[in-house]
Design brief:
With 320 residues, the chain is α/β, with parallel strands linked by helices. It has helices at 13-24, 39-43, 55-59, 76-85, 100-113, 127-138, 171-174, 182-186, 279-291, 301-318, and strands at residues 4-9, 29-35, 50-52, 66-69, 89-92, 117-119, 144-152, 192-201, 207-216, 219-226, 232-239, 242-248, 259-265, 268-274. The chain contains 10 helices and 14 strands.
């Protein structure tokens, strides 16, 4: 396998603090080029190749194998489509689009161009995340009766882009791709019913604290996200025979830290421990191998579409 040459589109916090160090440690890929309207910011990511101040020039560079997009939410779709039409594989920050129709449009472009297109929901590559999904779907907990998930933080300043409604701000697009959608992938995407949404808006107009409850078959799902509640997270699955629990401050964002999964069946409690890993690096490396013909697992676009459909339904209630 030859080294996978990455082109970064955007040089903001996530690119600098997450993907840059992850790929810098990789034996699979390298950051070859960065495109940013701020050349000085692009230089902080230290590409091995080139700095571009416009995205099209990066897309036209034949040395770039794949593109990582970390722009504000509203720009994900148009930039991803441009990159894919230029023949580049695309790993794009969540959410892929502002609604399900946009995600479907991007999927069609990826299929027509014959390139890999993946949503960068990095927590899905964490071994603990994959293990709780395996436990739930194995049947050892019995029929699942309830799933509860939560992911919150506070302390955003008023100028944070997450609070800007004109570029896709709001907590549902920020943390929803973690906690709000967790029951869907845990149960392998049954149909959603009985959707009920409660939301508190930030003065700027975006959703600030949002509870999204719904039913999947016979499973009641209770989820909450917020950027105005002290940091907390949990993922609790309750079945007829037992429970699986991920608790603590790093349920959805465990990185470079030990983590645990608590499984209780028939009154017996088992604690499974997971060593420190970097899910960003696992994600980037598996994406690169898959783009070069490997069989590594990447999150399917069908899942991204189902997430977008759930968000559409939730926003329809929020805007009533």
């Amino acid at each position: 396998m030859t080294t996978f040459k990455w082109g970064f589109v955007g040089a903001g916090m996530i690119a600098k603090k997450a993907l840059y160090p992850a790929i810098s440690r990789s034996n699979v890929g390298e950051i070859y080029a960065v495109a940013s309207r701020d050349a000085d910011r692009a230089m902080t990511i230290s590409p091995t190749g080139k700095i571009y101040t416009d995205y099209d020039s990066l897309f036209a560079d034949p040395a770039v194998d794949g593109v990582y997009i970390s722009l504000p939410n509203a720009f994900h779709l148009p930039v991803a489509i441009k990159a894919m039409k230029a023949g580049k594989h695309v790993l794009c920050e969540k959410p892929l689009g502002m609604n399900a129709a946009e995600v479907q449009e991007a999927i069609a472009v990826s299929e027509a161009a014959g390139v890999l297109f993946v949503e960068a929901s990095w927590n899905r590559w964490h071994p603990r995340t994959q293990r709780i999904q395996e436990v739930v779907q194995s049947g050892q907990l019995g029929a699942i009766k309830r799933i509860r998930s939560c992911f919150t933080y506070d302390g955003l300043d008023g100028g944070n882009i997450r609070l800007d409604p004109t570029i896709g701000g709001g907590i549902l697009y920020d943390l929803g791709p973690y906690s709000t959608v967790a029951p869907l992938w845990l149960l392998d995407f049954p149909a959603v019913s009985d959707l009920a949404v409660q939301s508190v808006r930030h003065p700027g107009g975006v959703d600030e604290t949002t509870r999204v409850n719904y039913t999947l078959g016979n499973t009641v799902c209770e989820t909450v996200t917020s950027c105005n509640i002290p940091e907390t997270s949990w993922l609790i699955v309750e079945g007829e025979k037992g429970t699986a629990r991920m608790l603590g401050h790093n349920v959805f964002n465990s990185r470079h830290a030990e983590s645990k999964l608590e499984i209780t069946v028939g009154g017996k409690v088992t604690i499974e421990e997971f060593g420190p890993v970097d899910p960003y690096q696992i994600m980037a490396d598996t994406f690169a191998r898959r783009a070069q013909g490997g069989s590594d697992w990447v999150m399917p676009l069908s899942e991204s579409l189902r997430f977008a459909q759930l968000f559409d339904a939730a926003f329809a209630q929020i805007k009533r």
